[in-house]
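dumping this here before i forget
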Amino acid sequence: RLFSTQTFTFPKAFVGEVSGFYNSPAVFGAYAGKPIWMVNLAVQKKFGESTLRFGVDDVFNALEFRFTSD
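structure:
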């Protein structure tokens, strides 16, 4: 498994974030799981003590659990 989160600070109290994960193929008894992955994006802006945050999960619509059996 691989997990990663990167945060970027921009002018005017903006913060951006890119996160995601990759899970390699795995065997579950008689089934073999295909690799799965996902990328998320978010941006936030601070207004004094308040924060407004907008995020999108699975930007590439890639999170799909797939299994095969022989």
